[in-house]
Model the fold of this input.
Amino acid sequence: MERVIVVDANARQKGRRVSTVDVIGVGPRLVTSILKMHGFKASLYAYESILNNKEILKDFDAIAISFMVSDFKAVKKLIDMWRKVNNGIIILGGPGTLSRSMLSSLDFSLALIGESEITLQKLFSMYKSLSEAYYDLSKSKTTIKGLAIKVDREIIDGGIGEWTPKKFLNVIPEINDLKNFPFFWASRIYVEVVRGCSNFRRPIQTFDGRYCTRCDLCYKGSLSSRISCPVNIPPGCGYCSVPAIHGPARSRDLFTIVEEVEKLTKAGVSRIVLSAPDFLDFGRDELVEEPLTDPCNPPPNVYKIEELLSRLSKIRAVAEERATVMVENVKPCLVNDEVADVLGRYLKDTPIYIGLESCSDDLLKKVGRPSTCSEGISAIEKLKKSGLRPYVYLMHGLPFERDEDVLKTVKAIEILRNIGVERIVLYRFSPLPYTAFELAPKPGPAISDPMRKLLYDKVEEFNREQNKKIIGRVIKAIVALKHPKKPGFLIAYPMRHGPVIIVRGGEALVGHRVTVKIHRLLSNRIVFGEIVYVHEKHF
Done:
């Protein structure tokens, strides 16, 4: 039986996380489960767990590393560690494998490109082990769809993997190995509810000479016909590869999701995020007979969404408020009064992210966004009114962006303040592989351009003002770990998400749920609080 160590290196950048340190994603957990289903002795570890105990690597025959494009240095460091103690093969996976230049620069044997379910199923129908597969494929210099192999310095590329049919989306990702992640009990554990994205509209051009012909196919064509573009512009927002890599939106089975969440809570997880490019696509694919490639029609499947949230709310740990369930992204054009009411009833006082990106409708259409600024503002108002805490995404440096576009967004910040947005997350556009804007120039930081700096400053001011509102609030949190630099202090995370909380206390409080009163801000994302009540130990 081949022993495979799966390492989650996502967001480790140069070798450690600098943000979202409390997130555990789906991908590496899912691959671990698939390997176990096929008879492998697979174990999942967090990147930092390997750094702290390199001897673990000696116990395995192969290493599988999941990473993002920004994680090159962290992955290279891990591969170097592996090579010093082990001659086994190296498998790469995750969004980082979409970059051909990254694959060219890394030492690896096999790379899963895109979704892995069908690729691995085909591979294991031919071979009994990953080592055998690599030996045979490298010898013949052939491969299969979704798999790249590296022989000496040559890459034999099988292209993007097949989109996984809906019936195969019901594997429950690895749960037991969460114990190999630091403070998993206090981390946000992502549970996939929808694979793929329904936005198969397209931007007006790519940056290698392809221009929209205004055929209107991706707006008015049949749902099936929207998958292909006459001039091969990739689907979706020009900066996002999800539709191209993961296909149209497909919902996971409701009962599988409930089973997974229940098992996670029994394993000690306290914070669960229902993960999807758009949570409101859940069940919407059941309302159409073709692939779901229209981002705004039909409306949300409110019945299915409510059934899911209702069943999750009845899980004992959730019902007793020992665990919380949150959702992440929603598209503004799908938010109506009915769905906002349902979300408010089951997810009151939890954050919800709305991608606004810009308040210039002209720019939004050019980049392939499915919603207008006014739809975004209307969605935020509805969600806020229903008791949720809206977080808004904005982006600067997008292709085709003009000063007047940025100025419209700057002016909209006052509107966002008045309707109760809790936080604005401002991103800088970055060109990614397999997107329409893959070859677009990467813009400089916001401070390098006067108009973008104005936007940056307004967002910083907004967030500072909003953060002050948390002073004096009493919130429930879970203690994650001792503060690494301040003896006598602990780090805790709000049960319903929010800023990192620093509190006084001894190590015995780690793993406890606590009630904290916030006293002051330490930074835009860190606050200082006082523990006013200690609940029973969670983990």
